[in-house]
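Reply to dn_fold:

You asked what the input looked like. This is it:
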Amino acid sequence: MNPIAEEMLMHYGMPRRSGRYPWGSGDNPYQRSGDFLSRVEELKKKGLSETEIAKSMGLTTTQYRVQKSLAKDERRALDVARARSLREDGKSLNEIAEIMGFSNDSSVRSLLNEGSEARMNQAKKTAEFLKKQIEEKGMIDVGTGVERELGISKEKLNQALYILEQEGYPVYGGGVPQVTNPGKQTNIKVICPPGTEHREIYNFENVHSLSDYISQDGGETFRKAFEYPASMDSARLKIRYGDDGGSDKDGVIELRRGVKDLSLGDAHYAQVRIMVDGTHYLKGMAIYSDDLPDGVDVLFNTNKKTGTPVMDVLKKIKDDPDNPFGSLIKEHGGQSYYDDPKGKYTDPMTGRKQSLSLINKRAEEGDWGEWSDHLPSQFLSKQSLSLIKKQLGLASADKQAEFDEICSLTNPTVKKALLKSFADDCDSAAVHLQAAALPRQKYQVILPITSMKDNEVYAPNYKNGEQVALIRFPHGGTFEIPVLVVNNKQADAKRILGNAKDAVGINSKVAERLSGADFDGDTVMVIPTGGKVKITSTHALKGLEGFDPKLEYGGKPEGSFKAMKNTQTEMGKISNLITDMTLRGATPEELARAVRHSMVVIDAEKHKLDYKQSEVDNGIASLKKKYQGSYDEDGRYHEGAATLISRAKSETSVLKRKGSPIIDPETGEQSYKEVYEEYTDRNGHTRVRTQASTKMAETRDAFSLVSDADTPQERAYATYANEMKTLANRARKEMVSTGKIAYSASAKETYQEEVDHLMAQLNVALMNAPRERQAQVIANATVAAKKQENPDMTRSEIKKASQQALTAARSSVGASRETISISDREWEAIQAGAISENRLTQIINNIDIDTLRQRATPRITTTLSTAKVNKIASMSASGYSTAEIAEALGVSPSTVNKYL
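and this is what came back:
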C-alpha cells in the first residue's frame, strides 16, 4: 500500500474529541494535519493538474478520484464529530458556526443532520456487505451495472472496492467469450478473497452475482431484492360489504395505525398487495384508519353484497414463486422489514431479528405525480373550439421555438442528434395529437373521504377555495367532468392524507361521476379553472345514474361467459366510438349506452365482467353502424374509426420495410425501402408480409383523415398535425445539410484526461449490446414456456411476465444499459472538437437525450437555499398545505414536494 493511502485509511473513522479544545493551532484545523486533501490543495497551488497530482502520488487517476472522495468523507466526519461535541457542550448553532469558521448556522445544521453521517458511511457499509458476500460465495462479479442492481451510486461502489483492495481483496479484470458471437468477448470485473490468483476468475462457474440483493438507502444496508411475501391470518381481516358502506370506499384497504407488520413507512397511502392465508390476496389502496373494530387490523372495502364468502372477495394467488400477485411490486421500497425477536431475518445494520412486512407496494405516495401532463385529444376534442385552438397553438409555438433553438447550435454533431430526436418527436406529436398542458395541471390518485361534500375536493397541491376540474381516462365526455371547490381545511382529509404529494380526496358520488371510478389506484387529471381557463362541464347523464358495472355484469361463474383478454384493444374501440359519436352529434341517451359499455370494458378483465352481454344490452353494434359505418369506392361496407381524432392512431398495414428511412434532402420527407415477401399462414393460405403503422403516420396531409362531417374540431387538429409534419421535415432537411465537426488534435491534447474518460465510458456502453441480445433471447424463451404452460394468459399477464422475464434475464447475463455522463470539462472538450465525428456520434447515441438537450440548450432549474428548505419543513409540520407553502415561497407545488 502506498504511504498516502495508508495514512488516509488510518484516519477513516476517527474517535470523538472534546469540543472544549481547539484542533490545531491556527484558523484552519487541517493546515498541519498532513491529510490527503491538504496535500492535494498544496500541489494544486503549485500549478499541478489532477493527472499530475495523481502521478506524483503513484496513483492512477481512478485511484486518485476514489481516494479524494473518501478523504472528503473523512474530513466531513471530523466536522460532524466536532459539531456534535460542541453541541453537547451547550454551544448554540451560531457559536458553533463561529468556532468552526462558517459564515452562518446552515452549515452547522447540515453537519448535525442525521443523514450526514449515514451518507459518509455508505462506502464503508458497502465494503462490509461485499466482504460478507465474498465470505459466503467466494468470487463476486462487480462489473458494469452492478451498482444499479444494488441500488447504490457507482462512486460508492468504487470507493468500497478500493477500501477492500487496500485490505487485500484483489480486483481483477478479464474477458468472457460470447457464446453467440465467436471471437468477441464480454469484459468482466471480479473481486476475490485474499490470495486469489488472476487466472482463477476464468473458472466462470465460481464467479457469483449480487443480483439477489438491493439497497434501499444508498448503501447503508443491503437486503434480498425479493422475498416471497409473508402471509396474514384471515382472522385479522374484516370485509365491509357494499350494503354496509363498502361501496363508498370500494377498493380501499384500511390499516390499523401503529401495527408493525402493516406499516406504510413514510407514506400516507400506497397501492398494495397483502397475502392472506397463503392462498389469496388483497389488492387496493392502503390508508391508515383510527376506528377499526377490536381484533381487526385490516378492513377491506368492497361493493360486493353481504354474504359473499370472504375468499370470493379476495383474489387467488398465482402459481408463480417470483410473482404470486400477477403484478410486479416496486423494486425499491416494495418490501420492508420490522423488528421482531422471533423473526427469521437479521437487520444488517443493527443485528436485530426481523420479520418481513405484510405490505407489498406497487406504488406509493410520490409515484403518481410524475406522469405525463399533456392534454390528450380524447379530452380536449370534446371541449370548446377556442380552448382546442389555444392549446394546440401553444404546443405548436413551443415546438417552433425548440426548432429555432436547436438550429442555432454551433456543434454540428450535437445539432444533428437533437434535430433527429426533434423530428421523431414531431412525427409522434402528429399521431398522438397531444396539446400543451394547462397551468398547474397534474395527475393525482383518488382516495375516499366519505365526509367530503359533493361539490368539494381535498387537494393540498392546489389553493384552498379555488375550483378544479377532474378528468378520468378513458374520458367519455363533458358529462363526466366534476368541477369542485378545493377544501384543504377538511379535518378528516387532513388527518388521513396530510400533505399528500399526489393524491386528492373525494366522496363516492364524485367518483361515480368519473366514469364509475373506484379507489384501488384510479387516477384523475386535475386542472385548476377560472380566469382564462374555461373547462366545459355538463350535467351527468341520467342513463348513468346508479349504474355499477360490477353489480350488473359481475359474479357469473367462470366459463359461463367470454372472458376479456384484450382490454387495451377493446377499450380503444369503445373510446373511438364515443369520440366519433360526440363529434357527430349523438344524443345523450346514445352516449349513455356507449359510456355504460366502456365502464364494463375497462374493468372486465380485472373483475371478470361479461362485456359481451353488455355489448348486446347497450346496442353497441347499432351505434357503430350509425356513427362509424361507411362504404368504400367499391361499395364494400366498413366499420371503424370515423373522425380524424380516432383515425390518427388507428392501425394500418404497410408492406414490410427494410433498413433505415431514406431522407429526401430537398423536402426532408422520409421514404422506405419496401420488401415484397409472401408466406404461408397456419391455414395454408398465401399471405403478403406486412408491418403495422398508423393512418396519420402514412398520410402526407392530415386533412385526408377528416370525416365527411368536416367538424371544426377535426380541422383544428388537422392543421396542428400538418404543422408538426412540416416541422419534422424541416428538421430532417436541416439535419442532412449540416456538416461535420472539425476535429482538433490540439484540443484532444488539452483535454486528454476528459477524452480518455469519455472513451472508457463509451467502451463500457458498447459492450452491453451483446449482453442485451442474450438477455432478450433468454427472456423470449422464458415467456414462450410460460405461455405454453398457461395457454389462456391474457395480454396484460403476458406483458407483466415479459417485463419480469427480461429483468431477470438482464440480471443473469449482466446486461444493463450504461448511459454516458458528461462533466462540464468533458462538454468543453466536445465543443472544442477534441473528439472525432464518428466517436462523438457513438457517444451521443449512448447519452440520455434529455441530458444532451440540457447541455446543449440549458434551462434554469430551481434550487432552494437551506433556509427555504427548512421553512418548507417547518410550515408542513405546522399544517400548511403544499399549495400554501408554495405560494409563501414563490415556487411551484412540485418544487415543494421535491423537498418534503
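The chain has 32 helices and 31 strands.
Hope that clears it up.
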